[in-house]
Recover the amino acids of this structure.
Protein backbone atom coordinates (compact mmCIF):
# COMPACT_ATOMS: atom_id res chain seq x y z
CA UNK A 1 0.00 0.00 0.00
CA UNK A 2 3.07 2.26 0.04
CA UNK A 3 2.84 5.05 -2.47
CA UNK A 4 5.66 5.93 -4.79
CA UNK A 5 7.11 9.34 -4.12
CA UNK A 6 9.33 11.07 -6.64
CA UNK A 7 10.76 14.51 -7.29
CA UNK A 8 8.07 15.31 -9.87
CA UNK A 9 5.36 15.29 -7.20
CA UNK A 10 3.94 18.67 -6.28
CA UNK A 11 4.01 20.76 -3.11
CA UNK A 12 4.21 18.82 0.13
CA UNK A 13 4.80 15.53 -1.70
CA UNK A 14 7.86 16.92 -3.45
CA UNK A 15 9.24 18.32 -0.21
CA UNK A 16 8.62 14.95 1.43
CA UNK A 17 10.43 13.14 -1.40
CA UNK A 18 13.47 15.37 -0.94
CA UNK A 19 13.44 15.00 2.84
CA UNK A 20 13.20 11.22 2.59
CA UNK A 21 16.45 11.30 0.62
CA UNK A 22 18.31 13.97 2.55
CA UNK A 23 16.79 14.11 6.03
CA UNK A 24 17.00 14.91 8.76
CA UNK A 25 14.73 12.28 10.28
CA UNK A 26 12.59 14.70 12.29
CA UNK A 27 11.82 16.94 9.30
CA UNK A 28 11.01 13.95 7.10
CA UNK A 29 8.70 12.52 9.76
CA UNK A 30 6.97 15.89 10.24
CA UNK A 31 6.53 16.31 6.47
CA UNK A 32 5.12 12.79 6.09
CA UNK A 33 2.61 13.37 8.89
CA UNK A 34 1.57 16.71 7.41
CA UNK A 35 1.29 15.27 3.88
CA UNK A 36 -1.08 12.57 5.13
CA UNK A 37 -3.09 14.95 7.30
CA UNK A 38 -2.91 12.74 10.38
CA UNK A 39 -2.65 13.97 13.95
CA UNK A 40 -0.13 12.53 16.38
CA UNK A 41 -3.04 11.20 18.42
CA UNK A 42 -4.39 9.30 15.41
CA UNK A 43 -0.93 7.93 14.60
CA UNK A 44 -0.58 6.85 18.22
CA UNK A 45 -3.87 4.93 18.02
CA UNK A 46 -2.98 3.33 14.67
CA UNK A 47 0.42 2.24 15.98
CA UNK A 48 -1.22 0.70 19.05
CA UNK A 49 -3.68 -1.16 16.81
CA UNK A 50 -0.66 -2.71 15.09
CA UNK A 51 0.98 -3.67 18.38
CA UNK A 52 3.59 -0.91 18.29
CA UNK A 53 3.27 0.81 21.65
CA UNK A 54 4.99 4.18 21.62
CA UNK A 55 3.99 7.04 23.86
CA UNK A 56 2.46 10.15 22.40
CA UNK A 57 5.29 12.11 24.02
CA UNK A 58 7.87 9.98 22.16
CA UNK A 59 6.15 10.61 18.84
CA UNK A 60 6.13 14.32 19.56
CA UNK A 61 9.79 14.29 20.60
CA UNK A 62 10.77 12.34 17.47
CA UNK A 63 9.12 14.83 15.13
CA UNK A 64 10.60 17.80 17.02
CA UNK A 65 14.12 16.34 17.04
CA UNK A 66 14.25 16.22 20.84
CA UNK A 67 14.95 12.50 20.79
CA UNK A 68 15.50 9.76 18.23
CA UNK A 69 14.18 6.22 18.08
CA UNK A 70 17.08 3.84 18.70
CA UNK A 71 15.83 0.82 20.62
CA UNK A 72 14.52 -2.17 18.70
CA UNK A 73 10.90 -1.53 19.79
CA UNK A 74 11.16 2.07 18.65
CA UNK A 75 12.65 1.09 15.30
CA UNK A 76 9.81 -1.41 14.83
CA UNK A 77 7.37 1.44 15.52
CA UNK A 78 9.11 3.62 12.91
CA UNK A 79 8.68 0.83 10.36
CA UNK A 80 4.97 0.72 11.23
CA UNK A 81 4.86 4.51 10.84
CA UNK A 82 6.32 4.13 7.35
CA UNK A 83 3.52 1.73 6.48
CA UNK A 84 0.78 3.87 8.03
CA UNK A 85 2.09 6.99 6.27
CA UNK A 86 2.42 5.19 2.93
CA UNK A 87 6.18 5.61 2.74
CA UNK A 88 8.69 3.28 1.11
CA UNK A 89 10.05 0.62 3.47
CA UNK A 90 13.00 1.80 5.59
CA UNK A 91 12.81 5.34 4.21
CA UNK A 92 12.61 6.87 7.69
CA UNK A 93 14.77 4.23 9.38
CA UNK A 94 17.59 4.95 6.92
CA UNK A 95 17.65 8.59 8.03
CA UNK A 96 18.41 7.62 11.63
CA UNK A 97 21.95 6.42 10.99
CA UNK A 98 23.90 4.42 13.55
CA UNK A 99 23.01 4.31 17.22
CA UNK A 100 24.72 6.84 19.44
CA UNK A 101 27.19 5.43 21.96
CA UNK A 102 25.76 5.30 25.45
CA UNK A 103 26.78 4.26 28.90
CA UNK A 104 28.93 5.26 31.84
CA UNK A 105 32.10 4.09 30.08
CA UNK A 106 31.90 7.17 27.84
CA UNK A 107 32.55 9.43 30.80
CA UNK A 108 35.85 7.63 31.43
CA UNK A 109 37.15 7.74 27.87
CA UNK A 110 39.81 10.48 27.82
CA UNK A 111 39.65 10.72 24.03
CA UNK A 112 35.89 11.29 24.11
CA UNK A 113 36.25 13.88 26.87
CA UNK A 114 38.96 15.74 24.92
CA UNK A 115 36.77 15.76 21.83
CA UNK A 116 33.82 17.11 23.81
CA UNK A 117 36.05 19.86 25.18
CA UNK A 118 37.36 20.71 21.70
CA UNK A 119 33.79 20.89 20.39
CA UNK A 120 32.78 23.11 23.30
CA UNK A 121 35.72 25.49 22.85
CA UNK A 122 35.14 25.73 19.09
CA UNK A 123 31.50 26.65 19.71
CA UNK A 124 32.45 29.53 22.02
CA UNK A 125 32.76 33.11 20.92
CA UNK A 126 36.13 34.74 21.60
CA UNK A 127 34.66 36.97 24.30
CA UNK A 128 33.34 33.90 26.18
CA UNK A 129 36.75 32.20 26.57
CA UNK A 130 37.99 34.26 29.57
CA UNK A 131 34.81 33.46 31.51
CA UNK A 132 35.05 29.75 30.74
CA UNK A 133 38.73 29.68 31.73
CA UNK A 134 37.92 31.42 35.02
CA UNK A 135 35.24 28.82 35.78
CA UNK A 136 37.61 25.95 34.95
CA UNK A 137 40.31 27.42 37.19
CA UNK A 138 37.83 27.83 40.05
CA UNK A 139 36.65 24.25 39.66
CA UNK A 140 40.21 22.91 39.62
CA UNK A 141 41.08 24.97 42.72
CA UNK A 142 38.04 23.61 44.59
CA UNK A 143 38.96 20.03 43.59
CA UNK A 144 42.41 20.44 45.11
CA UNK A 145 41.02 21.35 48.54
Amino acid sequence: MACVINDRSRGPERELAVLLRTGPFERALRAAIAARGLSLERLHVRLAERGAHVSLASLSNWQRGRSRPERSRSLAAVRELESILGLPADSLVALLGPRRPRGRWLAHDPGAIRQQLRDLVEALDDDELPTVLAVVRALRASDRK
Observations:
- The radius of gyration is 21 Å.
